[in-house]
Design a protein that fits this description.
Blueprint: H1 9-18, E1 21-27, E2 30-35, E3 41-45
Antiparallel strand pairs: 1-2, 2-3
Length: 48
């Protein structure tokens, strides 16, 4: 099984925003995002 690529938090947030997620809020260096239907959500650290 091949290794997964390393993706920065900033690139991950921008990719998810393009694919139907919304940024709810940001607290410090952590961005809270959810899908438009509010079924899925996660916290993404954006450090550095």
């Amino acid at each position: 099984m091949p290794k997964l690529p390393v993706v920065s938090g900033k690139k991950l947030v921008s990719a998810l925003l393009k694919h139907g997620y919304i940024a709810l809020r940001q607290k410090g260096s952590h961005v809270f995002i959810e899908s438009i239907d509010r079924k899925y959500g996660t916290v993404i650290p954006v450090h550095g």
